[in-house]
């Protein structure tokens, strides 16, 4: 990938990613004077090079794994043959987390993310539901910093690369599981929130879940305005707003005063989610198709002639690490 006389520094985090019978090569490199460049190459030598460069190699790896798991490995393959069946024992990227894996993720968020603003599992679940069904695709590098709650958006320190990969896998599988739940026929929704026990009994407690959903909306508030200004959309969003937002309405305190009132609002959420999902689905489909077409049209094999017309191979011209544009 380097030009003949150029010094290239390769990250020790470079690795391969295998799923559904295919393997991608994740390449992270820089020159002494540049930031980190991220390139993903498929089995046929076709590369996808990120436009943005990265301050750290870990940030580049996180972005690569996030996008591969969010979009699926086939988004990075060109004219791939039919995939072989994945080896026995591997997890499908859209397989919902088991109860044990949810507990594992919960414990990590509680005890390993040492930030006051880091999300708990119920907050994360609401957050990911909003991202999954909202009007536009939100790239993982945009929402992961909110999960960690770090001021600079950096991933919190982790014991090893293996732990980092495991946690990222759990996060992305949970997100993908939510997405696949909405796509199922009939839809399979399973929002994760707590139960509060009082002298009067047990009540669903969805306040932190609803707060997480509202945080997901705040990632791209202008895109949500069509629903939030639609009378039906306002009705669908109301139980979430009452539970999760401050100063949502003048009657908010009166409607959320008791555990029973809050549980009654929580009971309305699944129905609201289905309607919000249906409202935005045509918009998301149109955007996804356009982005997919744009992405596929820009893939160029590393050994193919550069499309700039120079006559050089792509890897020796615009595909070189200091000539990317």
Tag the structure with descriptive keywords.
single chain; about 325 residues; alpha+beta; Four Helix Bundle (Hemerythrin (Met), subunit A); six-stranded antiparallel sheet; two-stranded antiparallel ribbon; about 45% helix; globular; disordered C terminus
What is the total number of structural domains?
2
> What percent of the residues sit in helical stretches (DSSP H or I)?
40-55%
- Helix and strand composition category: alpha+beta
Give the ordered list of helices and strands: EEEEEHHHHHEEHHHHHHE
Task: Tell me the major beta sheet.
Answer: 6 strands, antiparallel
CATH class category of the largest domain? Mainly Alpha
Shape descriptor reads: globular
Record field, number of beta strands:
8
Task: Supply the CATH architecture of the largest domain.
Answer: Up-down Bundle
Average pLDDT works out at 82
Structure description:
The chain has 325 residues and is an alpha+beta fold. The chain has 2 domains: 9-78 and 299-316; 99-289, Four Helix Bundle (Hemerythrin (Met), subunit A) (Up-down Bundle). It is built from 11 helices and 8 strands. Strands 1, 2, 3, 4, 5 and 8 form a 6-stranded antiparallel sheet that branches. It has a two-stranded antiparallel sheet with strand order 6-7. Helix 2 crosses helix 5. Mean pLDDT is 82; it is low at 80-90 and 318-325.
Summary?
The protein is an alpha+beta fold. The chain has eleven helices and eight strands. Residues 80-90 and 318-325 have low confidence and may be disordered.
């Amino acid at each position: 990938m380097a030009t003949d006389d150029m010094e290239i520094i390769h990250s020790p985090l470079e690795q391969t990613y295998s799923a559904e019978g295919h393997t991608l090569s994740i390449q992270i490199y820089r020159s002494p004077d540049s930031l980190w460049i991220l390139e993903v190459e498929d089995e046929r030598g076709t590369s996808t090079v990120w436009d943005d460069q990265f301050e750290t190699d870990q940030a580049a790896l996180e972005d690569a794994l996030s996008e591969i798991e969010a979009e699926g490995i086939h988004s990075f393959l060109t004219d791939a043959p039919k995939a072989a069946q994945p080896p026995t024992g591997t997890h499908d990227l859209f397989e919902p987390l088991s109860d044990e894996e949810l507990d594992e993720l919960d414990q990590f968020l509680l005890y390993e993310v040492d930030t006051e603003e880091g999300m708990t599992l119920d907050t994360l679940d609401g957050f990911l539901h909003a991202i999954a069904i909202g009007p536009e695709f939100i790239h993982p590098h945009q929402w992961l910093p909110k999960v960690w709650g770090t001021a600079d958006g950096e991933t919190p320190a982790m014991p090893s690369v293996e732990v980092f990969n495991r946690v990222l896998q759990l996060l992305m599988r949970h997100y993908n599981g939510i997405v696949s739940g909405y796509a199922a026929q009939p839809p399979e929704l399973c929002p994760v929130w707590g139960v509060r026990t009082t002298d009067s009994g047990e009540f669903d407690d969805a306040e932190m879940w609803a707060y997480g959903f509202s945080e997901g909306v705040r990632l791209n508030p202008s895109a949500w305005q069509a629903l939030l200004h639609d009378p039906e959309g306002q009705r669908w969003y109301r139980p979430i707003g009452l539970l999760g937002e401050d100063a949502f309405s003048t009657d908010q305190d009166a409607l959320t005063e008791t555990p029973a009132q809050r549980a009654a609002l929580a009971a309305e959420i699944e129905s609201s989610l289905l309607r919000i999902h249906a409202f935005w689905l045509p918009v998301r489909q149109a955007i996804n198709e356009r982005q997919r077409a744009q992405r596929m049209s820009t893939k160029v094999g590393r050994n193919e002639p550069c499309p700039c017309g120079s006559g050089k191979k792509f890897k020796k011209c615009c595909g070189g690490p200091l000539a990317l544009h």
